[in-house]
Amino acid sequence: MSAVTETTAAGNSERARGTSGWAYALPALLLLLIFFVVPVVGLLLRSVLEPEPGLGNYATLFGSSTYLRIFLNTFMVSAVVTALSVVIGFPVAWMLAIMPSRWASVVFAILLLSMWTNLLARTYAWMVLLQRTGVINKTLMNLGLIDQPLALVNNLVGVTIGMTYIMLPFVILPLRGVIKAIDPAILQAASLCGATRWQCLTRVLIPLALPGVAAGALMVFVMSLGYFVTPALLGGTANMMLAEMIAQFVQSLVNWGMGGAAAFVLLVVTLCIYGIQLRLFGAGRLGQGA
Amino acid sequence: MLLDFDRLGAWKWVLVTITALVSLFLLLPIVFIAALSFGNSQWLIFPPPGWTLRWYRDLFADPRWLEAAWTSARIAIAVTVLSVVLGLFASLALTRGNFRGREVLRAFFVTPMILPVVVLAVALYAFFLKIGLNGTFLGFILAHLVLALPFSVISISNALEGFDKSIEDAAILCGASPWEARFRVTLPAISHGLFAAAIFSFLVSWDEVVVAIFMASPTLQTLPVKIWTTLRQDLTPVIAAASTLLVLFTIALMLLAALVRKGMKK
């Protein structure tokens, strides 16, 4: 900020030098150009060049019911995970914003711990918890709620549970910030004017928090679309998702053309959703994935 | 009043219950693996019939686990150093530079973070196969550096934006050379940003699975790759032991970060 407004002598000389300031970015720029842009563009080129030039790979991809089912699975799981994360995350973010700080910091620590615990460790825990002889099935059977163990893993139910677990913090943390920024006086005014609690919630609090909800939801949706580890481990081979399909084209089938085409589809969808997000909320929110 | 905790009335208890349940849900797998890692049941029966340290002994008796952890650590440390240095220079350009396309450059530096990792993994795999970097130490570092750099640029840029540049200018007016002013005035002032960049970069590399699965060779694999390949065979409790140690390591890093933050506020 101050670099722009500074008008002291030193500031001026610095600004004059600043025109060549981009040189500092050069090492990072080169790294990303060589090891990010070139490989990604190269992969996308292979999708239209291999095995022969043309759009054949894309025709196969969209023409086969097997692949279309994978797209559908991916979208459905991502949508359900997003909805669950928002519905479960909203009350938690709300509480986190207004709770006494001693409690809030405990919840906060749990959120951070869960977020930063190794992804494979968390997924492994769910694989064990959800298996036929796992704790969850046993508890439900002991409680007499079910007679037969439920199939909770190696299907899309398992993927949905595992992914919701992973995505929850990504909704709660930004949403907490948005709710915290709402002026309590607005809600006070609403209730003074005779709004019931329920009206305050649905007509004031939720609409005011909506930008945060939308931003969190879009981020979770887009992250879920490209997720690889959790679907691969909890979903089993019969319920593939998009990221797994890309990996399989390349690793097991060594079909770079199809792998590149599927990667391109994922890339385009991802960038489109981020485009929407930028349009709606500006660049400020992009960094919040951190 | 919906935004006043003490005046929520009956809603308070509903909301507090939901929050408590979600917190338990988030904590459940982590506590569960820790408990399992000490259970003596090969088939992960819970609660375990008895307790043992056998899985930790197995873990440390297998040189491949230690080797993988050592590889991960070396890669993560190299990535951390490079990411903070490159991130610092890039952030200087982004916050101090005065050139056209600065905002475009800022967005570009963050792109690797929003791109699905699997796309980058496959793309780098193809590229590295061609130029002979696949399965090499250098290949791992470069790939993880691409993923870590956005975190570093964001942390350091934020810190630089919060630092009043006139202090650096004052040092120059008082006779310091521009580089001296940067090293002795600006760097100490933004050290919390540098530290955050280092922790993020380290964890990004240390925990990274997807790129690593493609990059790994039979002779060079990181800890997440070792866990991944073991997981694909069976759910042995040895993984629970390894996971528990990883959780402890994460807690230690988080505590360290919290301590440093506290120390800086003083």
What does this structure look like?
The complex is a heterodimer of chains A (290) and B (266). Chain A is mainly α and 290 residues long. Chain A has a domain of 167 residues: MetI-like fold. In chain A, helix 4 crosses helix 14 and helix 5 crosses helix 11. The longest helix of chain A is centred in the N-terminal third of the chain and has 34 residues. Chain B is globular, with a radius of gyration of 23 Å. Chain B has 12 helices and no strands. In chain B, helix 2 crosses helix 12. Chain B has 266 residues and is mostly helical. Chain B has 2 domains: 33 residues; 204 residues, Orthogonal Bundle (MetI-like fold), CATH 1.10.3720.10. Chains A and B meet through helix 2, helix 3, helix 5, helix 6 and helix 7 of A and helix 1, helix 3, helix 4, helix 5 and helix 6 of B.
Please tally the helical runs of chain A, counting DSSP H or I stretches of 4 or more residues: 14
Order of helices and strands of chain B: HHHHHHHHHHHH
How many beta-strand segments of chain B? 0
Name the CATH superfamily classification of the largest domain in chain B: MetI-like
> Hey, roughly how much beta strand do the residues of chain B contain?
under 5%
Would you give the CATH topology of the largest domain in chain B? MetI-like fold
Q: In terms of structural class, how would the helical and strand content of chain B be classed?
A: mainly alpha
Mean pLDDT reading of chain A: 86
* Spatial gap, N to C terminus of chain B: 36 Å
What does the oligomeric state look like here? heterodimer
Segments of chain B where pLDDT lies below 50 for 5+ residues? Answer: none
Specify the number of helices of chain B. 12
In total, the number of domains of chain B comes to 2
Give the overall shape of chain A, derived from the CA principal axes: globular
Organism (chain B): Mesorhizobium zhangyense
Membrane topology (chain B): Multi-pass membrane protein
InterPro entries (chain B): MetI-like, MetI-like_sf
Domain ABC transmembrane type-1 (chain B): 69-257
